[in-house]
Automatic annotation (TrEMBL):
Substrate binds at H8, K12, T34, G35, T36, T37, S54, G55, H87. Belongs to the methylglyoxal synthase family. This is Methylglyoxal synthase. It holds the Pfam family MGS. Its EC number is 4.2.3.3. It comes from Peribacillus saganii.
Length: 137
């Protein structure tokens, strides 16, 4: 599966810890990330991550473009609900595209745990190879 990993600054440590805890799962998937998040993950793990621009410089939109092209299967985006982001419209657009294409999206650790455990037990099979399939028009 193609998985996007994104975290706002105050949540980056949490995401690095999360990815490290589930390394045995993430290593079998193709990972994408916004610039700084991807750098942090690669520094902390042996994982290869395709990095885009930093979020404020367009990284969220680049990941959104992959969703629109049906090339993304899951988004794990640890948002910081307590800090205003200069690129909030980009964040909203990314979340919206996940809804448009029915892409599983975790915006916090609790939901991410459920998604990753779901993957482990094969609950995401309906998605494989068919991102956004149910929104074909
Ligand atoms: O701002 C972000 C998401 O909106 C994340 O971007 P970075 O990973 O480059 O910090």
């Amino acid at each position: 599966m193609n998985i996007a990993l994104i975290a706002h600054d105050d949540k980056k440590d949490d995401l690095v810890r999360f990815v490290t805890a589930y390394l045995d799962i993430f290593k079998d998937h193709t990972l994408f990330a916004t610039g700084t998040t991807g750098k942090r993950i690669m520094e902390a793990t042996q994982l290869s991550v395709q990095r885009f621009q930093s979020g404020p410089l367009g990284g969220d939109q680049e990941i959104g473009a992959l969703i629109a092209k049906k090339e993304m299967d899951m988004v794990i985006f640890f948002r910081d609900p307590l800090t205003a982001q200069p690129h909030e419209p980009d964040v909203t657009a990314l979340v919206r595209l996940c809804d448009v294409y029915s892409i599983p999206l975790a915006t916090n650790m609790g939901t991410a745990e459920v998604l990753i455990r779901g993957m482990k037990y094969g609950l995401m099979e309906w998605l494989e190879g068919n991102p956004g399939e149910n929104n074909e028009s």
